[in-house]
Design brief:
Length: 225
Amino acid sequence: MAGEKKGLQLLDFWVSPFGQRCRIALDEKALPYEYLEQDLGNKSELLLRSNPVHKKIPVLLHDGRPVCESLIIVQYIDEAFSSSSGKPPLLPSDPYARAQARFWADYVDKKVYDCGTRLWKTKGEPQQQARKEMVEILKTLEGALGDKPYFGGDEFGFVDVAFVPFTAWFLTYERYGEISVDKECPRLAAWAKRCGERESVNKNLSPPEKVYEFIGTLKKKFGIE
């Protein structure tokens, strides 16, 4: 894309946990970037041109060249700026540990958002099934965390970046699914609090109440009451 702006630009939407992953990764690397908020109801020409396949956010533009899909963006940030940022890598250097990190990030992608959506979009038996699944998902992730401070060990890393934006959605999941993360997954709750104390996380996560209000707006829009 000749003539495009140099540097980093992020096409994003404020409440998106997928976009927040990218913002956290950029801040972990102390990389300056331009944030471009998108209207998903009226998608911009830049977004449609930058992600013609999926036509969705987030998209990272690096010197005008687009990188799409949040986990791929996070990995790109980690690799493209591994030496220039002077910050520790998000992915471990050991190939097996890298494979494990990618596995759990992929698990988060496949499970959490979809199940969480069913918690607030459905009622009755489907909602009860989603509640049961969400508890299982969170307990599985808590098992992967174990007694470690972070998923990769002592350092905040790739799986933490992938999963931590969803902690801002825990309040919504709790209210619609009648789940208590503190009671049912105390180690996960402690991890969420630990991550929330990091500047990169604290400044980029949407306040849980705002997420809950946003979902309430969506429910009215879709006629779900």
